[in-house]
Write a structure and sequence with these properties.
The protein is built from 14 helices and 8 strands. With about 400 residues, it is an alpha+beta fold. A hairpin with a 4-residue loop joins strand 4 and strand 5. It is elongated, with a radius of gyration of 31 Å.
Amino acid sequence: MAITSLKQYEKRKQKLWKFKCYLGKDEFGKDVRTTRSDFKTQKEAKQAYRELQIDFDKNKLKQNGNITFEKLYEEFLQSYRNKVKPSTIMILRRAIEDHALQYIGKKKIKDINVRLCTRMNEEWVSDGYKQAYYFRRAVAQILQYAVQQELIYENAMRKTAPINRAEIDENLVDTETINVYTPKELSEFLHYSQKHGNLKIEAYFRTLAYTGARKSEILALEWNDVDFENSKLTISKTLAEVELNPKTKKTKVASQSAKTNAGKRTISIDTETMILLKKWKEQQTIHHTIQGFDPLIPHQLVFPNKSNEFCRPGQPNDWYDMIVNKYNLEKRITLHEFRKTHVSLCAMADMKLEDIMYRVGHKDSKMTKQVYNYFYPEREERSADKFAQFIETEKDLF
């Protein structure tokens, strides 16, 4: 879009300026060209062109903004599928389809203003949705796509006040209660998981407790990831729910790579856990041979379902409930709190914070520090004592 010609001409013995310009294409795809004249100066002519171009662009945006948010979302989703992991698509779909479309799905995007977006944010918060901050971000992401496509001029959602995500406040660790197993309670639970008599379940919970891995990281493990010779375990994948059919919200379970580089790690495993895993592998091989499964397939899962496929991510929760209820165990934690249990016990075992972070695959130290500080508040005093002891012991060194 530019001035194609800018000339001075004479009219009634007066020197004036005129220009011809190309403004762009209209809604039907036709070129829009125009001529303006009778400007006293070149500067006036150029200013008139700029105003003309702005008016044209605004009117074009107004016409293009007639698309509904729902239609825009469908278009955005098609391109977004090629850029992110399948699990991210399902997270976005749930946010938009379950929580945003009911408010603005039928609205033309040119009519989605800051006031409407603010009201929508307030309702998500008042309804108690912990993911309200993400709903706002998802809507803003789609509206920004409209801005990039020159369908609207501004992103109304980006002008709303941010919804603060509930983050760990390291200053509150002394007043917060962190629910984890003590060494005695963990030992008791693992005893009953063994008593339950299912070697796969026993091996799963032992691995969960002694690695600090996420429940879906363990479900994604293959025997290729287990190094029996060196007692190492490589964690590089996780299970996630992904689209089964883009036209529906039906999902399937699939393995995908860890979200961050920190999530990809190789950690040491204690001898007893390795013995239990080896015992489970031998039993699995026998069962698969009887059932007709090939026991030597290259990517055999460590903890598959009965069909030798991925377990549901929620399956370990069912195993846990079954053991707790069967043996009437008083203490109940979530499977994610097994992960915090691991961090807390590592802290009690006097492991360095950096080593714990690597072990559990934390990119950010905030959560690790919270649990670490909670269960190891006297570490600074211990450090002071160690320093004093060192000086006392080595005072004649130099």
